[in-house]
Amino acid sequence: MTKKQDSIKVSQIIKEHKSSSNKDLVFALEFIKEDFELTKDSLIKLTHHLDKLEISYNLLLDEMNKRTNK
């Protein structure tokens, strides 16, 4: 299955969780855990990137302000 198909299947399992098989519940739990970890890692990387951008911007802004006597 593709990720999109898996995502659709997990959505269906969530909607029908009361009547889903244990195998389906395990499948959905593993899919959600993997997606959670991927999302968390992405957010951490983006946060570091954003912090570096802010530092770089402030460094250049300070230099520009010094040069223009502000």
Global shape: rod-shaped
Give the structural class. mainly alpha
So how many helices? Answer: 2
Helix-strand pattern, N to C?
Answer: HH
Work out the number of β strands. 0
The residue fraction in helices comes out at over 70%
Major beta-sheet overview: none
Which radius of gyration do the C-alpha atoms yield? 22 Å
Question: Ranges with pLDDT <50 over ≥5 residues?
Answer: none
Write down the overall mean pLDDT: 96
| C-alpha termini separation | 60 Å
Q: Approximately what portion of the residues adopt beta-strand conformation?
A: under 5%
Number of individual domains: 1
Structure description:
The protein is mainly α and 70 residues long. It has one domain. The chain starts with a helix and ends with a helix.
Question: Briefly, what is this?
Answer:
With 70 residues, this protein is an all-alpha fold. The chain has helices spanning 3-15, 22-67.
Topology, element by element:
Layout (H helix, E strand, L loop, with lengths): L2 H13 L6 H46 L3
Helix pairs in contact: 1-2
List keywords for this structure.
70 residues, mainly alpha, 2 helices, 84% helix, rod-shaped
